[in-house]
C-alpha cells in the first residue's frame, strides 16, 4: 500500500513539476488504483497490517495427493463460483470479472505451471504470486493437504502435468 | 382486584409484541427458508435470522419486507441452482404489508447472538485518501470484487454475483456485523462459500467502512 501511495505522490509530483495535463494525471491515478484487472505481474503491497497475512516462506512442495470425493466437493462448493462446475472458467462470476477465471481444462497454460505454483496461487491468492488479484487467498480456509489435493484435481481436469 | 388484573393484562399485551414471535412468521412460511434460532434443525435455504438484530438495520428491514429486492442474484449458498446461476428457492421473496413488516422487523431486531460485541467500528467515515487505500484492499488484496458487486470510480456497478451485492449495503447492514463477519465468519455460519481471512482489526475496520461507503444513495 505504501508503494502505491508513493506512486501516487510521484505521479502528483511529476504532474506539478512538468505541467502534465490534469487529465493525464487522473488517468494515471486511475490506472494505479484499478484492481482485479491485470494479467501482468502485480505489485505486492507491503504494509504489514493492511494486507492478508502471507507467510514469508516459500509454498511447500505440492505432493501429489489423492483426489477424493471431499476434494471434488470442495471444488464444487468454493471454486465453481468463478471456475465453473466443470472447471471451464465459466462460473457465475466469470462474466463480471475483468480477468477471466482460469480454465482448468486447458492443458496449454497449466502445463507451464508447476504444482508448487498452483499450490501457491490457491494458498496465497493471485496477487501474492503475480497473477490476477481476483483470485483470493484460501490458505486460511483450506489446510495444505486439501490444497494439494485441489492441485491434483486441477491436473485431472486438464489431463496434464507440469512440463 | 379486577382493576389490577386489568392493568396486568394491559401491560402483558402491550409488551408481548416486542419479544414474542409475530404470527406472520408461521403464516408466511418464513421457516421454510430461514432459521430464527441456532437450535432449529430444518434445511437452511435462506440466510439465518437468529442474529438479525446484530446484522440488519431496522429501517431497511421494514422497507425490504414490503418491497423485496434481490440481494443475491444467484440465490443463497445452499440453493441447488446456485452453481449454475439459476436460483430455485425464495425468489421472489414474500411480501408483507406495512403493519406486518413493522411487527416482523421489531421482532427480528430482538434476535441477537449472546456474545456479540458492539462498538468495534466508529461512525467516522474514511477520508478520501484512506478510502482509496481501502478500495485497494477490497479489490486487490482480498479480491472481494470477484464475488461481490461494488461501485467503480465512476459509480458504475461492477463485480461478481455469487456473494450478496454490497451496493448500498450500508443501508442494510450494521457496521459491527460486517466487522465480525470479516474477522470470525464461523460465529455466524459454519460453512460459507467465502474465504476465511486472517485479518487484523485495523484492516477489518477499514474494509467495513469502505463497504458502508459503497452507495448510490445517501
Brief sketch in words of this structure:
The complex is a heterodimer of chains A (163) and B (218). Chain A has 163 residues and is mostly helical.
Keywords:
A: 163 residues; mainly alpha; Cytochrome Bc1 Complex, Chain D, domain 2; 2 domains; globular; B: mainly alpha; two-stranded antiparallel sheet; 9 helices; 39% helix; 2% strand
Unreliable stretches of chain B: none
Q: Write down the CATH class of the largest domain in chain A.
A: Mainly Alpha
Percentage of β-strand residues of chain A = under 5%
**What is the N-to-C order of secondary-structure elements of chain B (H for helix, E for strand)?**
HHHHHHEEHHH
Domains of chain B, number:
2
Determine Rg of chain B (CA atoms, Å).
19 Å
Radius of gyration of chain A: 18 Å
Plain-language structure description:
Chain A has 163 residues and is mainly alpha-helical. Chain A has two domains: 32 residues, no CATH class; 90 residues, Orthogonal Bundle (Cytochrome Bc1 Complex, Chain D, domain 2). Chain A contains six helices and no strands. Chain A is globular and about 35 Å long. The N terminus of chain A is likely disordered. With 218 residues, chain B is mainly α. Chain B has two domains: 92 residues; 85 residues, Orthogonal Bundle (Cytochrome Bc1 Complex, Chain D, domain 2). Helix content of chain B is 39%, strand content 2%. Chain B is built from nine helices and two strands; from the N terminus they run ααααααββααα. In chain B, a hairpin with a 5-residue loop joins strand 1 and strand 2. In chain B, helix 4 runs antiparallel to helix 5. Classes of the chains: A mainly alpha (163), B mainly alpha (218). The interface between A and B is large, with 38 and 38 residues.
Amino acid at each position: 500500500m505504501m508503494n502505491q501511495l508513493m506512486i501516487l505522490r510521484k505521479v502528483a509530483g511529476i504532474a506539478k513539476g512538468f505541467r502534465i495535463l490534469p487529465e493525464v494525471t487522473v488517468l494515471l491515478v486511475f490506472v494505479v488504483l484499478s484492481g482485479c484487472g491485470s494479467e501482468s505481474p502485480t505489485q505486492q503491497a507491503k504494509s504489514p497490517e493492511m494486507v492478508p497475512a502471507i507467510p514469508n516462506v516459500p509454498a511447500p512442495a505440492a505432493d501429489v495427493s489423492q483426489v477424493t470425493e471431499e476434494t471434488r466437493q470442495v471444488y464444487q462448493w468454493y471454486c465453481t463460483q468463478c471456475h465453473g462446475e466443470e472447471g471451464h472458467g465459466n462460473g457465475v462470476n466469470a462474466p463480471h470479472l475483468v480477468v477471466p477465471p482460469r480454465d482448468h481444462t486447458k492443458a496449454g497454460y497449466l502445463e507451464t505451471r508447476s504444482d508448487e505454483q498452483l499450490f501457491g496461487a490457491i494458498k496465497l491468492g493471485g496477487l501474492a504470486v503475480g497473477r490476477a488479484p481476483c483470485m483470493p487467498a484460501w490458505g486460511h480456509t483450506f489446510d495444505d493437504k486439501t490444497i494439494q489435493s485441489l492441485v491434483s484435481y486441477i491436473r485431472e481436469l486438464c489431463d496434464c502435468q507440469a512440463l | 382486584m379486577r382493576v389490577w388484573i386489568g392493568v396486568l393484562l394491559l401491560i402483558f399485551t402491550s409488551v408481548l409484541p416486542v419479544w414474542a414471535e409475530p404470527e406472520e412468521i408461521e403464516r408466511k412460511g418464513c421457516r421454510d427458508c430461514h432459521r430464527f434460532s441456532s437450535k432449529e434443525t430444518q434445511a437452511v435455504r435462506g440466510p439465518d435470522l437468529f442474529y438479525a438484530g446484530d446484522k440488519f438495520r431496522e429501517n431497511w428491514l421494514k422497507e425490504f419486507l414490503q418491497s423485496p429486492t434481490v440481494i443475491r442474484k444467484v440465490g443463497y449458498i445452499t440453493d441447488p441452482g446456485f452453481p449454475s446461476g439459476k436460483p430455485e428457492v425464495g425468489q421472489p421473496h414474500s411480501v408483507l404489508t406495512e403493519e406486518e413488516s413493522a411487527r416482523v422487523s421489531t421482532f427480528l431486531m430482538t434476535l441477537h447472538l449472546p456474545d456479540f460485541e458492539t462498538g468495534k467500528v466508529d461512525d467516522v467515515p474514511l477520508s478520501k485518501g484512506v478510502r482509496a487505500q481501502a478500495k485497494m484492499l477490497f479489490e486487490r488484496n482480498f479480491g472481494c470484487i470477484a464475488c461481490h458487486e461494488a461501485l467503480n470510480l465512476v459509480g458504475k456497478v461492477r463485480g461478481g454475483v455469487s456473494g450478496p451485492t454490497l451496493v448500498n449495503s450500508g443501508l442494510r447492514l450494521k457496521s459491527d456485523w460486517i466487522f465480525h463477519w470479516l474477522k470470525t465468519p464461523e460465529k455466524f455460519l459454519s460453512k460459507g462459500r467465502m474465504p476465511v481471512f486472517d485479518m487484523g482489526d485495523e484492516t477489518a475496520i477499514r474494509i467495513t467502512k469502505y463497504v458502508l461507503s459503497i452507495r448510490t444513495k445517501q
